Structures are given as structure tokens and as C-alpha cells.
User: Fold this.
Amino acid sequence: MKGVRISGSNLVRGGLAALSGLLSGFTALAVAELASAAVRPEAGPITAVGGAAIDRTPAAVKDWAIRNFGEDDKLILQLGILATLAVLALVLGVVALRYRRIGSAGVLMFGVVGAAAAVSRPDSTGFTDGLPSLAGAVAAAALLYVLIGRLTAPRRPVVEGEESGWDRRGFLIAATAAAVASAGAGVLGRTLNGRRSENAVASRAGVLLPQPASAAAPIPSGAQLRVPGISSFTTPSKTFYRVDTALVVPKVDANSWRLRIHGKGVKRPLTVTFQDLLDRELIERDITLTCVSNEVGGPYVGNARWIGVRLSDLLKEAGVKPPSRGGPADQLVARSVDGMALGTPVDDVMDGRDAMLAVGMNGEPLSFVHGFPVRMLVPGLYGYVSACKWIEDIELTNFDDYDAYWVKRKWARKAPIKTQSRIDTPKPFGRPKAGTVMVGGVAWAQHRGIDRVEIRVDDGPWRPADLAAQDTVDTWRQWSFPWKATPGGHTLTVRATDRMGEVQTEKRTKTVPDGASGWHSVVVTVD
Assistant:
């Protein structure tokens, strides 16, 4: 029986064909990056495909990604897309060695997919968003066709008697030139895209927040407990949690920013500028925000001091009435520059709570990550129905007529924040020393306030914890408990009661559809 013989030359050519596919993929991304500078950065293929993937991912999968990767979930997605493209490019290169036109056509098809993803995004500006992906695909397909041609075209012998073969010199020159040109295109595209955001950066640097007409009361001296390991009462802006779907953080020029208020029941449609907001009566409030993706005991909750304009004042100026007073619209749809749409009950926005269009956070203009130039806040509601970042449009409508982004993905239409509590210290699986151990943490029930926190050790009785001074009903509240710890393994459990008398439920539920519930507990071993 004869074996199959594979020559070393064929193996080399196969490897170089795979490399050609990979180089073509790099060219596609580089040319697309350059082309996106003429359209907009968000039209790049990685951002477009990644955004489309996020839009089509089931809520449970998104929740799993946030739970396991935290704020790195977008980076993991982008790396996954790049890895997938790299593998496909290698395969297409090998296919092209035998079927040159099919391999090149395959590259073009990926460009079509990228273009389709770009124009299907909620923030798409039209067919031009598909041009970067198409331009990159055409360049990549042409390059792959040329490189494979160098691998398959016979080379004439230089000297008499030399065996003919593929064009090594031509392949090396073409591949090197393509790599250099692609790198240059990518760097130029990245530079030009960076310059597009310079006006936004400059506009933020030039913002001087006015003194609020209604300043926040000083934080009570007893609001921050002196318990090592407990969360800071005010969360620094740099460590404040971020959960959104934006693969590229929008950088909006405050000078050109506009907000439109329109829709059902709006008697006087409004268009306001950033300066218009700064010239209005500003309020300053401490408000705790919570993400609906926060698991029991999770990190996606934070407290900050916000400055902004009362949203109810703007709505009243536009002639809006809440349903409770005869208004025809029961839903406020807030849209951001990246296409996100959140739905908020109009009654909640106009019931007297400090719902606002925020322009500042912890004494500074909002950072780009947290929504500069303007974001919406509604105390007492989970962020996915209230905390629209980079807001640019407010439409009054009805819940029966329109489902916002997350509602279409099986999340609840209305989502008041549930009464929750968390143990910050000791940490899970910690090994404290026997004796008095300070157990501490935070509890929150925004717009209702925390009335009581209790601790249970193992299966013992519930014991009242010491509460820190309360700032407002819209902020979290710290607590502590001096535990006389004995050697061995123990389970510490916490529960809270809000000022409406509602005790935090023991029943464990997942975050979908309206937030997690259950008691937080930690297991420790006392030495």
C-alpha cells in the first residue's frame, strides 16, 4: 500500500497561504479603521459586529458575562471577535491556495456581514456606516488574491537546469509592502479618529459647573463608619461601577450637544443646549445608583453627589402632565447617542423625587464613561429604566405602544430597586482572629430608606446591627456589628428592613427580569 507523500514545498506554501489570509484580515481591519475616520468611529467593523452581537445576545447570557467578567466584558467580547476573525482568515487563506476566487469571495462576504451589522445598529446614521467594512473587505480580498497568485504562479528558472517553482521573491515583496501599508493605514485611521474626539475633550475641560441653587445638605458626620474594609460612603468617580453596551465610549462635544423633548402630551416641544442647562436652576443631591445586573452581595452599586436640572421642571415647561393628573403618556423614553433607549414611568419622574438631568458628579463635570455631557437619573429605579447616559432625546409615549431596549430582551418594564444589604467585611473565606470581629457593610432601598439591619451567625437568632447616620432616603446606609467570634467555621448572614416596613426577602431570585433578591452571606473560618 502506498502512503501519501506531502512535499516540504507544499507545507511551506500552505503555511504561507494561511499567513496570507491572516495578513489580509489585518489589512481589512486597518483599511476599515481608516475609512471609519471619514464616516464615524462607531462604524468600524469590530465595534459594529460587537454591538450587533450584544443586541442579539439573550439577557441571561449578558448577565452571565457581567457576573463573570465585570467591566471587562466588552474587552473579552472584542478579543473573542478578533480571535474568531483570525481563525477564519487563516482558513480562508488555506482555501484560497486551492480555490483562489472562493477564498477571496469569502473575505468579501465577511465585509458584507460587517456592513450589515453596522447599518442595523440602533445608532446607525445610514448606509454610510457600512462603507468602512466594505472598503476593508475589498482591500483584503484583493490582497489575498494577489498573494495567493504569487504562491501559485510558476517562476521561470533563473539559470538553465534550475527547477521552476512559485514566486518567492514576489510573495515576500508583496506581503511586506502590504503589511507596512496596512500598519500605516491603521495608525493613520486611529489618529484621525482620535482627533475627532478632541473637540469633545476640550469642551469638557472648559466646563465650569455653577453653584447649585439647591445644594445638598452636608453628609452627616456619622454616615461614614470607621470600620476597616467597609465601602466608602461616597464612591469615587474613577471606581464607580460601569455597566452599558457601548464598545466605544461616546465622546460628545458639549458645544454641539442638543436634547429634544417631544411626543404624546408635549404641548411645547423643547430643544435645549448644554449651556441652557447650566443657566437653569441646578440641584445637588447624594443619590445611590444600582444596576439591575447586581447579584446579591454584588459590586454594581455606588453612591455619588450629582448636580443637574430637575427633569420634572423641563417636562412641566414642555406642558407634560403625568398620568395621575390626566396626562396621556405613561412612559418617558430616553435615547442616547449610541442608540440605547430606556423607558421610565412618567409618574415616577414627576412625583416629587429628585429625578434629574445630571451634568456633574462628585464636584466635577461627568466623565465620558459616566455620560458626559448629560445623563439622566431617577432615584429608586434600577439603571436600565432610568439612568440613560449620553442622553440626546426624550420622547413621551405609552408602555403599550413601545418597548424599550431591555424590555425587548425580557426585562421588566418597571423596576423599582429592591431592599438589599451586603457584607463588606469580613470577606468571604476570610480568617479573622477569635475575639471581637467588626462585621460591616451597606444596605440600600432608594427612595424608601433603611430602617433596620440585622445579622445572624450560623443558625442563631437575628441580632440588630448598629446603623450609621442616614444621609437621605435616596442613599445607601452603612452598618456594623461587633461579633464575638469563636474558633471554627461560621456563616454570617445579613438582612435589611426599609422604612416602609418591608423586610428583605430570603427568596433567592436571579437578576432577570427585575433584579436579584435574597440574603447575602459569607463563610469565614475563625482562627
